[in-house]
Amino acid sequence: MLHQDILEISYKHRYEIKKVFRDILGIYGIEHFALDLVRPDGEMIFLSATPSHGYEICKKGWGKYDGIIAPEYYENFEFYWWKDTCHKNYNKEIDYIRRVKHQFKHGFMLVRKLNDFYFIYSFATKSTDPYFPSLII
Prior knowledge:
Strand order of the largest sheet: 2-1-5-4-3
Helix content: 25-40%
Radius of gyration: 14 Å
Strand content: 25-35%
Order of helices and strands: HHEEHHEHEEH
Largest sheet: 5 strands, antiparallel
Structural class: alpha+beta
């Protein structure tokens, strides 16, 4: 479940967040980075260097359908590609926001669990290089 203020959190603090994440952006062509935190009760917040990405999906009410932040994935996998997730609904719309509006071609998630909290690191690039995945794994 998404935090009740999910739409405001990353936007309100976007400049501070981008300053913290700027060292990650640019490595291997990474153009999107976000840290998603899931509390033990399942509530999630995200801090994103590109808050419009999550904002557009959540504003339309599609966040709860978004496969990349679904418990089925982050509870079972430490690494997964966005393309390998299945959205519960609004698949075409969510993919349109990522692939067309934001032009993200490759995205992936790294997951770590610590004391019943999940830390989910989200990365994406606009690079069309077909070998990009081999740089990551």
